[in-house]
Amino acid sequence: MVLINPLNSSAGTALTPSHQSVSIDSHFSPWLTPIAYGLGCWLVLPLYFRIHITGQENLPRDGAVILAPTHRSRWDALLVPYAAGRFVSGRDIRFMVTADEVKGIQGWLIRHLGGFPVNPRQPAIASLRFGLEVLQNREMMVIFPEGGIFRDKVIHPLKPGLARLALQAEASQPNLDVKIVPIHLDYSQEIPTWGCKVTVQIGKPLSVADYSQGSVKQEAQRLTADLATALQQLAQSLSEAPLSSYSM
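The structure assignment produced for this chain is given below.
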């Protein structure tokens, strides 16, 4: 499953979603979600990886939240809920996924686990509105701000769409207080295999309400820059003090 930043327009241009009619069918299945979380968190991930997590105390237990992880592997889609989902924060996590991924049995599974599709090249109004509603409903959602998978250990330039979506949600409701949580994922192997060490660092959240002084363009740029700095600091702290305690 590839997770994306759906709003790849520049910070200074208006969003231009497609006007095609799209019905968004996405929810958390009351029977599939606990099974998937249980298998992933208690069986698959602990057996396949050696995982070390820091900063879980930084996860908001309520309110509108965007988790903003680096993107290094398709495994990220499982490791983020493992580190921040229902067994840690008590919350299920929404995912934005490419429309091409939401097809067939895989699409059925994604939709029943809270994922919803967005076409990054021509996002439909319904998809963008659904993303806003997720935040307006004070849910937790994942957006990978780098916009794609990068297997090196470099923080790549962040796309501006995450900041624009967060600012738009914040402006839509008084006191929504959207939080953006930087998450740094690090694998000991470029292509993760059995026994690979994984470090998940969860940083302190950024409050979107603090970015309301200038124009939308200026504040989106500032918020994106601050998020990039937070991710860089997490990466630097790992390189300076490698972690040695991993789950077996």
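Interim note for the steering committee: The longest strand covers residues 179-187. The longest helix spans residues 216-240.
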